[in-house]
TrEMBL record:
It comes from Parafrankia soli. Keywords: Oxidoreductase. GO terms for molecular function: oxidoreductase activity. It holds the Pfam family ADH_zinc_N. Residues 22-127 form the Alcohol dehydrogenase-like N-terminal domain. Residues 172-294 form the Alcohol dehydrogenase-like C-terminal domain. This is Alcohol dehydrogenase.
Length: 351
């Protein structure tokens, strides 16, 4: 098959062996696959996996790895021991995890679990879901990114007495915003330096957008949550001030720490950014403020299924997030373009 192959830190399109489905696996043809920031983190930060003893993500510079974990695909064949409950030709996707003889692997982050930046990949039959949708492949494949933000927004359980502040307006943050809107939470404040990202945040359901180059996000939050007049502040002091819930969706060192230093007392922070090179946090400041920090992790199967259904049905419209499409020969350039915050939220590979 042809694939955009990562080796020795570079990506090039060439011919490699077709993957062979093992027990319980499906061979599928990639129809569309989104480029995620975690693809870039994976290829740029070899050191990030040194302390990860899960074995789910393995970057060996000396072997071929086919990235891509946000895919829409078509069933081609079955491995041994499969139930064959999904017909050949069905359009599918799955939580990007594959069971292998050496354990569970993230699809697109191991030599033995190739991703959607190639013509073919392998899926676990048990986790594969049929796309009950007439929407284009490029939209269906965004469901995995949506599942991360949807899961974060759902697990945080923002109450009617809290006002959310979303830092960063990439794909995950936009999905957080969309799910908060679906849950009836608001007003939703979104922060990004890039005007086009702020516009997309409004399209996905944000009520207020903030350029941090012009105003402190935390002052802007206070103005919205507490009001600007003294009379309003006094009234709210008696009734109880709203709480702050911050979603950190940037993944650059220093951002989470800046939230700790800038946010209100008793803020709840849900961090899904996770810079691969690590970060330094002023934990004493966090302690004095009584801040609660929860780190995201991936979505549950339930939340993934919910996102897949919401995107496929059109209930959660992801079209504002979509940029251009590229073929396999354009993946290397598209990965570089995805590093630019001024670029589209999602570039989609169509093998």
């Amino acid at each position: 098959m042809r694939a955009a192959v990562l080796r020795e830190g570079a990506v090039e399109a060439r011919v490699i062996d077709d993957p062979v489905p093992g027990p319980g696996q499906l061979l599928v043809r990639s129809l569309a696959c989104g480029i995620c920031a975690s693809d870039i983190h994976f290829m740029d930060h070899l050191e990030a996996g040194v302390d990860d003893d899960s074995g789910m993500s393995t970057y060996d510079r000396d072997v071929d790895i086919v990235m891509g974990h946000e895919y829409c695909a078509e069933v081609v064949d079955y491995g041994p021991g499969t139930e064959r409950r999904i017909p050949v030709g069905a359009r599918v996707s799955s939580l990007p995890v594959l069971s292998t003889p050496t354990g569970r692997k993230i699809i697109g982050q191991n030599p033995e679990s190739p991703g959607g930046f190639g013509e073919y990949l392998l899926l676990d039959e048990a986790m594969t879901r049929v796309a009950v949708s007439e929407l284009p492949n490029e939209i269906v494949c965004i469901a995995d990114a949506v599942s991360v933000g949807l899961s974060a927004a759902s697990r945080t359980q923002v109450t009617t007495k809290e006002v959310p502040l979303v830092i960063g307006c990439g794909a995950i943050a936009l999905s957080v915003i969309a799910q908060l809107k679906r849950l009836g939470v608001g007003p939703i404040l979104a922060v990004d330096f890039v005007a086009s990202r702020r516009e997309t945040a409004l399209a996905m359901g944000a009520d207020v957008v903030i350029d941090p180059a012009e105003v402190s996000p935390y002052q802007a939050w206070r103005d919205v949550a507490y009001g600007t007049s003294e009379a309003t502040r006094e009234l709210m002091t008696v009734a109880g001030l709203p709480g702050c819930v911050v979603f950190e969706c940037v993944g650059i060192p220093g951002v989470l720490d800046s939230i700790i230093k800038g946010c209100e007392r008793n803020t709840r922070i849900f961090s899904v950014g996770g810079p691969p090179e690590g970060d330094h946090l002023h934990t004493l400041t966090a302690k004095r403020k009584g801040i609660n920090i929860q780190f995201g992790g991936g979505p549950s199967m339930q939340h993934w299924d919910e996102a897949f259904a919401a995107v496929g049905s059109g209930d959660l419209d992801v079209t504002p997030m979509l940029g251009r499409t590229v073929g396999l020969d354009g993946v290397a350039e598209a990965l570089n373009a995805s590093r630019d915050a001024n670029g589209p939220v999602r570039i989609v590979v169509v093998p």
